[in-house]
Amino acid sequence: MLIGDVARRSGVxxxxxxxxxxxxxxxxxxxxxxxxxxxSSEDIRRIFHIEILRSLGLxxxxxxxxxxxxxxxxxxxxxxxxxxxxxxxxxxxELLTRLRRIGAAEPANWEDVLQIVALLQALGAESAGKxxxxxxxxxxxxxxxxxxxxxxALSETDPNVxxxxxxxxxxxxxxxxxxxxxxxxxxxxxVRKRAVQSIAEIPNPEATTLLQDAxxxxxxxxxxxxxxxxxxxxxxxxxxxxxxxxxxGANDADAADALSALASDPALADRIATTLIGCLASGTxxxxxxxxxxxxxxxxxxxxxxxxxxxxxxxxxxxxxLTATYVLKLRNAR
Length: 334
Known about the structure:
Residues 1-69 form the HTH merR-type domain. This protein has helices at 3-10, 14-23, 41-55, 60-68, 74-104, 110-123, 128-140, 146-155, 159-171, 177-183, 189-200, 205-214, 220-232, 239-248, 252-263, 266-280, 287-297, 303-312, 318-333, and strands at residues 30-31, 37-38. It is mostly helical.
């Protein structure tokens, strides 16, 4: 069969067949009297084998080894092809993500595109300073795709950069809340923590709703951060978690401050005081926990808290009695 016929039947161009010949991959078995290449059925079978191996990503050199080296074992090469393919897919996925983010920012011209790309690259820089500047620039200079900000906020380990990213997200409105909500369900504890911290800094009703839902999150760290944020927003649902934090000594000073903020609402002050008093009456509570609860009463306004402190100043636990006496003097001096 002449080269033209082979090209038509195999789908491999005559030019490529000549290239295979020059490399020694497929040498025609014979020649016609006029000197034209003549391929046998075995030659054509080899051409199909070459095309199959090329479709797997093998180079022509690797194809030659696979077909001609009796000691060639494919397993190692296949493993290498798998690795290369995964790397290529990862690179293409990263490119697709970057393009989507650029598109989401709705650039008006190529200058905008270049600026967005520069910010995205800076956001992934090794230097914490560069990442922080990129986060700040996303608000002050050019809009950063919110998906990129959320991804960065959920993965950032440097506290200064993380703070800048949370601030940038807060300025961007509620566009990232859905993605942050997904972060609350992440299998990684650190991601869940960063997600709730970011939500806590977004001052809108949708964020408040997410924080209220987070009070039932299986992760106690998420529940505590949510309660602290809700306390400053005047959401009474946070009271039980805040009191538990005081009892357990987990960020208890901030929890007491959040209770105090809630107690500025007269409708909640007596409720908080009554709940604290009920905890203090527990006979199984450790002395240190009772002292913390007594301290928390200091900033709860109203006669209920004042009467409780007066009673506690005579408590059998000397530490509790001294604490109650001290905070009662501070209340009376105000």
